[in-house]
Write the structure tokens for this entry.
Amino acid sequence: MNYPPNQRLAYGYREQGEGMEIPDEHEQRYPQSTSTPQYPGMQGFQDYPGAGMTPGMPGMPPYGTAQYNPRYGYPGSVPPQQNQFPFVPGTEQLFNNPMVANAAMHYGSQIMDSGKEMVNKELNKYVSVPLLKHYFAVDTSYVAQKLKLVVFPFSHGDWTRKFDATGPAQPRHDLNSPDLYIPLMAYVTYLLVAGLALGTQDRFKPDLLAICATQALAWIIIEMAIQLATIYIFNVQTNLNSFELLAFAGYKFVGIIMAILLSLLFHRKGYYAVLLYSSAAIIFFLVRALKYQVMCSHDPNSGYSDAASSIYSSKRKMYILLSIAVTQPLFMWWLSYDFISTG
């Protein structure tokens, strides 16, 4: 169709010779655009891989199709990798390392050593640990001979204590030296025998056993407190200390155990017979063992001597010695009569 020149210029058409190519029918119907097409709902996803790709590339599905993922791009593309933390070995792998294991053992030994020093420092404020170890320095031979001496003290001849360069000899080197091992084991055995006696009489209860343990310990403390107060009030100079008083007070549990066991076999008659013998044995044992500790003073060069003691001081020492020995049978009866088997 031919238009006037002014109308052709108004509509933007030129003749073919005027430098303007006439688009064909396909280009007019489907114009190409160099800009990235916009799709509804995809304005916020411009940072994903493939956002700037031209649609229609070989092997790539078009935008907006079901095969396209707006966040990770096309199928087969690698998702963006997040920052990975460095490798942390497990506990087993860490301690399998010899250097780490040695360092941990060294550090643990240092902590235990410092804790031990702290405990010893706090304990030494109230109790002398080296002195306490001295009274537990025993062996099997000493324990057997000491038990024989406590039960049968009448045939023993030499009751003097032995001394060395550091002071009194350890119990395993001196049979006459008091110890704390036998009193402690006798106290524990006393509780077991008391539970056995209550069980044979159908009276066993855990509460009764706890009361028995507390009562026995309380009487030991009361006895020691009375003895120390008496020695302090009468101003008596002795070689005894609190550990030795505790040891001599604990030897009576040997006789208590014998009395309770014999009561299971012979009932009241067996109990009182063994109690009388044990009372006489413990009195004789304490009088002979405490004589050199209470009545005499010891000098490393000259040994035991009582010449420096006055008559009045000797009487006070004798009263204290007899009070310690004579009160033992009363405590023995008080701590054992509840467990007598009546048959």
The longest helix spans residues 252-295.
